[in-house]
Amino acid sequence: LTSFDAVPLAPADPLFGLLAASKADTFDKKVDLVIGAYRDDNAKPWILSAVKKADAILANDPNLNHEYLPIAGLAAFTSAAARLILGKDSPAIQESRVTSVQTISGTGAVHLGALFLAKFYPRPRNQEVYLSSPTWANHHQIFSNVGLPLASYPYFSAETKGLDFEGLQAALESAANGSIILFHACAHNPTGVDPTRDQWVRIAEIIRKKHHFPFFDCAYQGFASGDLANDAWAVRYFIEQGFELCVAQSFAKNLGLYGQRVGCFHFVSPPAPSAADANKRIASQLAILQRSEISNPPAYGARIASIVLNDEKLFAEWEDNLREMSGRIKDTRRVLFDRLGELGTPGNWSHIVKQIGMFSFTGLTEKQVLRLREESHIYLTKNGRISMAGLNSRNVEYFATAVDKVVR
Ligand code: PLP
C-alpha cells in the first residue's frame, strides 16, 4: 500500500495518443493530419530560412555563453515581441503601458496569464472564464488548474460551419459583468473560423458595456493570412479602443520553433496617468510568479527569435517564409475543395476554403473519422479537425477520394 493508491489513472492525451498511432502506421500512403505543425510539400518538418540564418549567426558568436537569462527573459526579444503583436507605433508601447514576460511558448504564456488572473483579478461575484465552444483543448486544463471556474460561449455553428455570432453575442451579454473572456487573436483552433472586423467591433462594444476582461491567445500571427499586421488586427483594435487586456503569444508556428518553446506574455494597462505605475506593480508580481514556476526562461529559441525580429533583412525574409507557409496551405485548401467538387462529394464544402490558418473543421463525424483511419490510414482528431499542413500536392487527391467514400 502506498500513500498514492487513490491516484486515478488519467486518460492518455488524446492528441498525442493519436499521433503515436499514426507514427506506428507504416502504410506507404498514410496521411497524418493530427498535429498543428507545418509540413512542406513532402510532408516534412520545415526549418524557416530566416531561422537557419539566425542560427548561423548565433553559432558564430564568440561571446555567447549559457548563463541564465533575466527572470522576465531576453529584453531584446520581449520588446520586439511586443512591437510585433501591438504594432511598433502602438500607443500602449509609447505610453509604457505594456509589461512583457518571456514564457515557455504559448502554453506557458496562457498559464502565466491564468495564474496572474487567479491571484489578482478582482472577482467579487466569482465570475467565470469564458472559453469558446469549441476551443484548444488545453485551455480547459490550464484555467481549471489555477482554480478559475470555466464557462463557454457558442462559437462554431455546425449548420453553417462558420461563426455562431448570434450565440456568441448572447453569451457575452448574459455573462456576469467583469467576466474574463478568452479569444483566439486569429486562426481559431480548432475551427479555422474568425470573426470579421465588423464582428470584432461589435464584440468590443459588448466587452466594454459588460466590463469584461479580454484575454487574447495569439498562436498564429502571420501564419494565418501571411500578413503579420492583418493577423494582429483584433488585438490592435482593442488596444486602440483603450481596453485593459492581456496577450499570450507563441512563436512555435510562425517561426517554426515548436520545440524551443519561445513565447511571451503581455499585459497592457489602459490609458491613464497611473498606467506606468500600474505596470510596474504588475511586472513585479509577474516576476514573482515566474520565479516560482521556472525561474528563468530558456535562452536559445529567444535568441533566434530576437535576431530575426530585430534584423531588418532577416525580418523581411521571415515575412517571405510566412507567405510561403500560409500560401501553400491556402492553395491546398483550394485543391481539396476543387477535388471534392469534381468527385461530386455530397454536401457543401465551401467552408474548406473559407476557414483560415492551420486547421479546418471539416464537419466529418466521429464515425467517418474512424472509417478514414481504418480503411485509408488517414489520421485526424475525432472532432473532424484536420491540420491543413499535413496535406500536399501528393496526398490531397488520395485524401479527397477517401473522404468522398466515407460521406456517401
Ligand atoms: N493556443 C492555441 C490556440 C494553440 O493552438 C496553441 C498550439 O497549438 C497554443 C496556444 C500553444 O502552443 P505552444 O505552447 O506550442 O506555443
Automatic annotation (TrEMBL):
Enzyme Commission number(s) of this protein: 2.6.1.1
GO biological process: aspartate biosynthetic process
One Pfam family matching this protein: Aminotran_1_2
Keywords: Aminotransferase, Pyridoxal phosphate, Transferase
GO MF entry, a single one: L-aspartate:2-oxoglutarate aminotransferase activity
Catalyzed reactions per annotation: L-aspartate + 2-oxoglutarate = oxaloacetate + L-glutamate
Cofactor: pyridoxal 5'-phosphate
Broad EC category: transferase
Family: Belongs to the class-I pyridoxal-phosphate-dependent aminotransferase family.
Note: In eukaryotes there are cytoplasmic, mitochondrial and chloroplastic isozymes.
Subunit comment: Homodimer.
PANTHER family: ASPARTATE AMINOTRANSFERASE, GLUTAMATE OXALOACETATE TRANSAMINASE 1, ISOFORM B
Protein name per its UniProtKB record: Aspartate aminotransferase
Taxonomic source organism: Tuber magnatum
Lineage: Eukaryota, Fungi, Dikarya, Ascomycota, Pezizomycotina
